[in-house]
Amino acid sequence: MATLLVRNPTLIVTMDDHRREIADGGLFIRDGFIEQVGQAAELPDQADEILDLSGHLLLPGLINTHHHFYQTLTRAVPAAQDVNLFNWLKTLYPIWAGLTPDDIYTSTQTALAELALSGCTAASDHLYIFPNGSRLDDEIQAGLDIGVRLQAARGSMSLGESQGGLPPDRVVESEDFILADSQRLIETYHDPHPGAMTQVVLAPCSPFSVTADLMRQSAIMARRYGVHLHTHLAETADEEQFCLDMFGHRPVAYMDSLDWVGDDVWFAHSVHVKQGEIQFYAQTGCGVAHCPTSNMRLASGIAPVLDMLQAGVKVGLGVDGSASNDGSHLLEEVRQAMLVARVRAGLLGASRSGDQAPPLMTARQALEIATRGSAAVLGRSDIGSLESGKCADFFAVNLNKLGFAGGLHDPVATLVFCAPVQADYTVVGGKFIVKEGQMVTVDAPLLVEKHNRAARRLLANASTH
Ligand SMILES: [Zn+2]
Questions:
Q1: Beta-carbon neighbour count of residue 101 at 10 Å?
Q2: How far is the CA of 231 from the centre of ligand 1 (A)?
Q3: CA 9 to CA 383: how far, in whole Å?
Q4: Distances (CA, A) of 351 to 160, 347, 358, 422
Q5: Which phi-psi region, left, alpha or beta, contains residue 93 (left: φ > 0; alpha: ψ -120 to 50)?
């Protein structure tokens, strides 16, 4: 029985059902789960380990609902810097075709370390390209080694260019193999229990890279095993046109026709959705991974997140892949979500004034999306808030920083409004991943060196083919 006592934080943001923020409080943790959250006087004063967080703000770990870790190897590729989604993909597919199992491992470590340093304690990754013997297993192993909870989404592409899809034929897989491998991964790695470090998700990539039949078969398998379903949806106007031309449906109606709606489904993006489609998400329980930076980077548009929240749609936050963000700073993404929602409110409200003006997203709403919201989207009731019985997943930030000076009357808002900082402590299941601002579970400088070597090789090989 290992216990950890966290004491003296300036403020605890619990994100519990009452959204309590506790001054002079602490956490008492036993075997990776929170046993008590409350006033310091109510907590035990002894534990196997004591963490003194004087001067720190303590929050539930942030949860990332959409990423492509391998893309850390292709950040800011010149030909993909200033183009929209379809041209961006066509530029990058041939480079990604050179990925190896070791690249998957290394890039997963890099992305998860970067996420952990930004306060993230659980992440979903969507890996949909498996060249040269790469497997989802390579990513899962790296996730376990870093110690951040992983919702590993077994992505897939089966609709190559010759069949009317977007990806080149050489990067797609056969549907029989995709389904057999999905089953193997669920049976090998999926842990349905509270406190799971690894869960498996089935995630055909997008309407323009898989067939309707693979979508249907994946949904049948996911429901047989009780795992979640994930895909990209309604990201761009190009995709909407593709769906209308190819399937005779808008993206959301296409998903409905495939039995791809429900509490166990979440969609990345959902930028191009109409009011009726938002209502449909709310009625059917579909969740959304909001990826504001990526949507700006690829000029995809602005997702109507406040409308979704108002309708009762589950919304979580995602940084998206590092070739379209190009960073994995989840706290920065919280700020981006708040700011871009305000841009949208400004555009909508240009013709209105006073009481008629649309509401502005608050800092606390943005933080809620990245914690409680993301946990709901992933279908995990064991994370997302600091409450008795939940996983001991949290991060803490030292408030004594130049960039926060002058904002300590409201440290929670200051954390979101001011320039994004790194976490000083990130803890997953009671284990330190980041301590005093440094990664504990990987040698970061060595990882950077290895990662840069792999990225150089990938780009050099692609330019000679
Ligand atoms: Zn994506």
A1: 17
A2: 8
A3: 20
A4: 46, 8, 11, 39
A5: alpha
State how far the Cα of 140 lies from the Cα of 59, in Å rounded to an integer. 26
For residue 105, give the amino acid letter: Y
Residues 6 or more apart whose CB falls under 8 angstroms from that of 221 comprise: 179, 182, 183, 186, 202
Can you give the pTM of this predicted structure? 0.97
**CA distances, 460 to each of 94, 95, 236 (Å):** 12, 9, 30
- Expressed in angstroms and rounded, the spacing between residue 128 Cα and the centre of ligand 1 is 10
In this predicted model, what pLDDT tens digit does every residue of 359-376 receive, in sequence order? 999 999 999 999 999 999
What is the per-residue pLDDT across 103-120, written as a single tens digit (0 to 9) for each? Answer: 999 999 999 999 999 999
Ligand 1 centroid vs 232 CA: distance in angstroms?
A: 6
Distance of CA 206 from the midpoint of ligand 1 (Å): 9
CA distance 371 to 315: 10
Q: pLDDT digits over 336-362, tens only?
A: 999 999 999 999 987 676 677 889 999
CB of 302 within 8 A of CB of 343?
Answer: yes
Cα-to-centroid distance, 460 and ligand 1 (Å): 24
